[in-house]
Specification:
Layout lengths: L16 H13 L2 H20 L6 H10 L15 H14 L5 H12 L12 H15 L8 H10 L5 H13 L11 H8 L8 H6 L6
């Protein structure tokens, strides 16, 4: 597979037509925050894949990383669906329109849809596991010491993260605030509880006890 001429932290970013078009789409439809974050997710995910000795398709991992937060955008805020599903569906449309085989489409869709669901992706296909690994590294710092200081510095120099913690939380808030029901049972409920006055998170136990079953 063709790849870019200049590796970052010894990781090459795919330079196929599919990858280039994905990059252009993300640059055209998101801001610098999501673009740089998504590229870091690919690079950190690839490094984690190397450390774990996983054999993955760099192109599929790249598409998953680049599309994983598209659903936070303004045009999806009235969808009524989790932003992860909106992101995954956008990736699926993109891949199918370019004739990517269904197994690859499925892997990318699953990688994106599950990237905020801890404890499951690590046991699935490498592309699914590594999108989540890249997100967890960049957002939560999970496995921070797994990447050398030199590699981390090289990635952040190319894709900087000024005030990233605050700004990514703001992006999560704005993306999910209009559809708070989609935060039930997932980590975005924590975000809304911190940043949206009056938000009341769903209670799983109360939902079970208040269900229409008569017993």
């Amino acid at each position: 597979m063709a790849s870019g001429p200049s590796p970052v932290a010894d990781v090459r970013v795919p330079d196929t037509r599919l990858a280039v078009e994905a990059t252009e789409l993300v640059r055209d439809t998101t801001g610098e925050l999501v673009y740089h974050h998504s590229r870091r997710v690919y690079l950190f995910g690839a490094l984690q894949g190397r450390r774990r000795a996983l054999s993955f398709d760099p192109e599929l991992l790249y598409i998953g990383a680049m599309f994983h937060d598209l659903g936070l955008g303004e045009r999806f805020r009235s969808s009524g669906r989790r932003f992860e599903v909106d992101s995954a569906d956008e990736a699926r449309r993109f891949l199918r329109s370019r004739g990517v085989p269904e197994d690859g489409v499925r892997r990318v869709w699953t990688a994106i849809a599950l990237h905020t669901t801890p404890g499951i992706p690590a046991f699935m296909e490498p592309e699914v596991a590594l999108v989540t690994a890249g997100v967890e590294y960049d957002v939560l710092g999970i496995g921070y010491e797994d990447v050398s200081d030199a590699d981390r510095d090289a990635i952040v120099a190319l894709h900087p993260r000024p005030d990233f913690k605050r700004r990514i939380l703001a992006a999560f808030t704005e993306g999910v605030r209009p559809k708070p029901e989609t935060a039930f049972g997932n980590v975005k409920a924590d975000v809304l509880q911190h940043y949206v006055p009056g938000f009341e998170r769903g209670d799983f136990v109360r939902t079970v006890l208040d269900s229409p079953w008569p017993e």
